[in-house]
């Protein structure tokens, strides 16, 4: 059984036969989960990520079954089950973040420049996870990284607030306009621009993101990118200036 409690390499993993489980009570253990799932289908691997320092699980994990049908059967049969009074959250792993990297998929631009379009979401329902936020807020624009929900380091439970960063201010403005005061899983959330971090101390400053300076810098960066992409490179790799039109002088 011990060989089951591992994180298989991506090349050896059948993501379509895997499930994500979350909202775990701190008392839940790997053997308990194994005994629960094995009653319904053969298990290939069960991965419960743990805090490197405290060695406690972070409230979620992944399980891979032998076949896709096994995963679908378990997803249906265990829907609504509770462990230590908390409802077990089950989803298909292919629609979730993979492992601890928490990739949002096509809605995420991991190489995009952080211009400061960072928003703060407060009063989140404890059942809302990073994937739920990604699904909700990616409708307004491209995220430059996976959403971040602040969690208790010991229990892994959500503290009720998190952050999302977009690749432009029009998206973050729209998200604030549409989602501030909206109801997410029976909780009325507050959505505003996040406070900036002080690079010297790591603490939040009293100035929020989205100010005139950040917007001006973002516009300048966008303009520069357009300029560079419209120019041509010569054989030496240097950017060459566009040739003037002989008739118009432009």
From TrEMBL:
Keywords in alphabetical order: Nucleus, Repeat, RNA-binding
Pfam families for the chain: RRM_1
Major localisation: nucleus
Superkingdom: Eukaryota
Transmembrane segments: none
Bias (Polar residues): 224-236
CDD domains, alphabetized: RRM1_SF3B4
Domain RRM residue range list: 17-95, 117-196
One GO MF term: RNA binding
InterPro entries the record matches: Nucleotide-bd_a/b_plait_sf (IPR012677), RBD_domain_sf (IPR035979), RRM_dom (IPR000504), SF3B4_RRM1 (IPR034158), SF3B4_spliceosome_assoc (IPR052084)
Compartments reported by the entry: Nucleus
Basic residues biased stretches: 240-250
Family per record: Belongs to the SF3B4 family.
Protein name, UniProt field: RRM domain-containing protein
Species whose genome carries this gene: Debaryomyces fabryi
């Amino acid at each position: 059984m011990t060989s089951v409690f591992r994180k298989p390499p991506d090349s050896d993993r059948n993501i379509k036969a895997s499930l994500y489980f979350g909202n775990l009570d701190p008392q839940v253990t790997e053997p308990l989960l194994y005994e629960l799932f094995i009653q319904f289908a053969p298990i290939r691997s069960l991965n419960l990520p743990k805090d490197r320092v405290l060695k406690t699980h972070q409230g979620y994990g992944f399980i891979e079954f032998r076949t896709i049908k096994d995963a679908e059967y378990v997803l249906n049969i265990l829907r609504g089950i509770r462990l230590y009074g908390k409802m077990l959250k089950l989803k298909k792993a292919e629609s979730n973040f993979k492992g601890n990297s928490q990739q949002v998929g096509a809605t995420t631009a991991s190489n995009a420049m952080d211009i400061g379009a960072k928003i703060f979401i407060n009063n989140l329902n404890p059942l809302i996870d990073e994937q739920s936020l990604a699904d909700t807020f990616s409708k307004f624009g491209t995220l430059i990284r996976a959403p971040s929900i602040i969690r208790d380091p010991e229990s892994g439970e959500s503290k009720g607030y998190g952050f999302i960063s977009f690749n432009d201010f029009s998206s973050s403005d729209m998200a604030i306009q549409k989602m501030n005061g909206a109801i997410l899983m029976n909780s009325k959330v507050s959505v505003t621009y996040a406070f900036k971090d002080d690079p010297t101390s790591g603490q939040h400053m009293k100035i929020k993101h989205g100010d005139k300076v950040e917007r001006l810098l973002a516009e300048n960066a966008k303009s520069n990118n357009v300029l560079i992409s419209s120019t041509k490179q010569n054989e030496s790799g240097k950017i060459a200036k566009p040739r003037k039109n002989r008739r118009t002088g432009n």
